[in-house]
Design a protein that fits this description.
By secondary structure, the chain is an alpha+beta fold. It contains four helices and seven strands; from the N terminus they run E-H-H-E-E-E-H-E-H-E-E. Strands 1-2-3-4-5-7-6 form a seven-stranded mixed sheet, sandwiched between helices. It binds coenzyme A. Coenzyme A binds next to strand 4, helix 3 and helix 4.
Length: about 150
């Protein structure tokens, strides 16, 4: 597996994965903005299967915020999400970040389990933060020291 920088040329594949795994996917514009903003936008790739997933990290002073992480539907539950998250934590450490934080939908049991396993704990709740199928949904804020 390799972790490499995401570029505009990756966005077709990134968007295909994003739309297949997220009920409320980022748009092409969101990804282009992330690339232009110099966030850490990384693609996780296997020699045989191509792009397995990707992740986007925003660095602010000494805190890294994980804005997006996804593993292609056919590649989930093989440990790639955990490994990609660890790679992003290692990258953040190398940039002298002291903490990593993120927001996750309260209904996203898979992601919450992944984050807990990776040492994140709940640090807050934003009520009715996300648009959802029927109204709004809470965001759970999670974080861990690096
Ligand atoms: C969350 C996500 C990245 C996990 O990727 P993954 O490669 O399937 O995860 P892993 O195989 O590394 O699993 C690591 C741990 O996460 C948890 N987990 C992952 N998928 C799970 C699921 N469907 N249900 C419950 N727990 C799950 C488990 O604790 C798992 O450990 P285990 O396999 O030892 O039980 C993936 O489900 C995904 O892309 N989801 C859609 C996008 C998304 O929701 N991103 C997060 C936005 S905040």
């Amino acid at each position: 597996m390799i972790l490499r920088d995401m570029s505009e040329a990756d966005l077709d594949v990134v968007l295909r994965i994003e739309r297949e795994v997220h009920a409320h996917p980022w748009t092409a514009g969101n990804f282009s903005d992330a690339l232009r903003s110099k966030y850490l936008c990384k693609v996780y790739e296997s020699e045989t299967d191509g792009m397995v997933g990707y992740a986007i990290l925003m660095l602010a002073v000494d805190e890294a915020e994980l804005l997006d992480i996804a593993i292609a539907a056919g590649q989930q539950r093989h440990g790639w999400g955990r490994k990609l998250l660890e790679e992003m934590m290692a990258l953040a450490r190398r940039q002298n970040m002291q903490r990593m934080v993120l927001e996750v939908r309260a209904s996203n049991a898979a992601a919450i389990a992944l984050y807990r396993k990776a040492g994140f704990s709940d640090i807050g709740l934003r009520r009715d933060y996300y648009p959802a199928e029927n109204g709004r949904e809470d965001a759970i804020l999670m974080g861990r020291d690096l």
